[in-house]
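Supplementary Methods. Inverse-folding protocol.

Structures were first reduced to a discrete structure-token string of length 440. This string, shown here, constituted the complete conditioning input.
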């Protein structure tokens, strides 16, 4: 088993969560979000579950942060709910919401935990969703106002900050594939959301820099796109998948343009003048975060662009049905600095697996998760040895939580949550990480 000593001095280990997935939105005066209306629509979410109660982290955060500290994590990656601090999305802040994040951040600092904030992890205030949400060209201004509020109130105490978690999910998964709120399946909506997400990101970076904040980054998610067979058609489909998923956002952020393979489908639908927005989109960053879980096998499809489909693969799978393929992490840890970020510090900002964990005699044997993390940590260690400027690694997730359209069924936590009693029970993986991280 690896130990802390297998990683460079100062390497940051962390656990990650997000607001809607754990806090419980019913408490503390949070406004409604598009996830509430999406979940209230039959067929969208398993059992129609929502984030009303979730893990009640809103109340139980001291116990949760004790678990972060006791495992020896250096940092806690959390998100600030826009609708909790600005129930209308704009205008008058909710003092209770601001006070909650004050308490949460101070509780991290009291425990010696570095607060790693994400401003937006997917719960868009409903009043802004009603105005078209990410499709609306005013979104960067609204997001800038939210960033301004966070910067003024908490900026002096945050260790790191990223504006938006996983732009691909915010834009493509939610506006082209329809799997997440607002559940759209529309190429024009997707194109606009893809661009507005990046412009909002850049606007927030400029706002936060203006307040003197440091250690600002971007967090993108990556899927290792493999051709389903060795035909040129499958290679072409996998390249299109890779361009949409893995290249589009980095290309905007670091090259000031979008990949041709994506423009061939999206260009007619991008907002007018999109070419003029890259000065903001390319606002300088201090680090880039990679979220990595799996690979996908891609085949061509007889449909309009992007004319591709996912097919089943042969590797062992997690509870999500996702193949376990640590090679993909190795691939991205090489490709991202080589093609985009150069010497910029990188973090793995999410990695982990869902497992059908059960409590037997008070214990949870999630040895599959221990093996998964070990394999992926090893790829990180090898990348560092090859000179990749990887500075930290965050495990998804601290707690079992609301896995979006899959409800509470998929368990990603290092800590088990009984969703009836809300009791927390550390799993074998939490204990294993503790042995790895706590040095005597
Ligand atoms: O639960 C999600 C998280 O919100 C974003 N990244 C992937 C995780 C697992 O699906």
């Amino acid at each position: 088993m690896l130990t802390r000593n297998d990683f460079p001095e100062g390497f940051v280990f962390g656990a990650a969560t997000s607001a809607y997935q754990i806090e419980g939105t019913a408490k503390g005066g949070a406004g409604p979000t598009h996830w509430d209306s999406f979940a209230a629509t039959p067929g969208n979410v398993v059992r129609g579950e929502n984030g009303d109660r979730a893990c009640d982290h809103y109340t139980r955060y001291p116990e949760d942060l004790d678990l972060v500290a006791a495992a020896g994590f250096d940092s806690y990656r959390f998100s600030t709910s826009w609708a909790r601090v600005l129930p209308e999305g704009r205008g008058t802040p909710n003092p209770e919401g601001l006070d909650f994040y004050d308490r949460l951040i101070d509780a991290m600092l009291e425990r010696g935990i570095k607060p790693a904030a994400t401003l937006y992890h997917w719960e868009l205030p409903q009043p802004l969703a009603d105005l078209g949400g990410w499709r609306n060209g005013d979104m960067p201004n609204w997001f800038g106002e939210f960033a301004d509020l966070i910067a003024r109130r908490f900026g002096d105490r945050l260790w790191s900050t990223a504006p938006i978690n996983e732009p691909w999910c915010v834009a493509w998964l939610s506006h082209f594939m329809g799997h997440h709120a607002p559940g759209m399946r529309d190429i024009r909506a997707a194109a606009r959301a893809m661009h507005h997400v990046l412009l909002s990101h850049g606007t927030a970076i400029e706002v936060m820099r203006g307040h003197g904040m440091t250690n600002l980054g971007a967090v993108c998610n990556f899927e290792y796109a493999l051709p389903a067979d060795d035909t040129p058609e499958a290679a072409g489909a996998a390249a299109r998948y890779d361009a949409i998923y893995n290249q589009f956002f980095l290309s905007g952020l670091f090259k000031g343009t979008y990949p041709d393979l994506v423009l061939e489908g999206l260009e007619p639908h991008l907002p007018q003048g999109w070419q003029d927005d890259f000065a903001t989109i390319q606002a300088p960053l201090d680090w880039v975060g990679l979220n990595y879980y799996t690979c996908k096998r891609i085949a061509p499809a007889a449909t309009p662009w992007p004319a591709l489909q996912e097919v089943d693969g042969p590797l062992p799978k997690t509870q999500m049905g996702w193949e376990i393929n640590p090679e993909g992490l190795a691939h991205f840890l090489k490709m991202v600095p080589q093609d985009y970020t150069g010497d910029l510090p990188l973090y793995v900002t999410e990695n982990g697996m869902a497992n059908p964990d059960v409590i037997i005699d008070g214990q949870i044997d999630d040895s599959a998760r221990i093996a998964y993390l070990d394999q992926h940590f090893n790829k990180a260690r090898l990348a560092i040895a090859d000179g990749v400027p990887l500075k930290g690694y965050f495990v998804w997730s601290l707690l079992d939580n609301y896995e979006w359209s899959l409800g509470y069924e998929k368990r990603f936590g290092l800590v088990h949550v009984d969703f009836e009693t809300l009791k927390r029970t550390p799993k074998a993986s939490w204990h294993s990480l503790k042995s790895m991280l706590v040095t005597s």
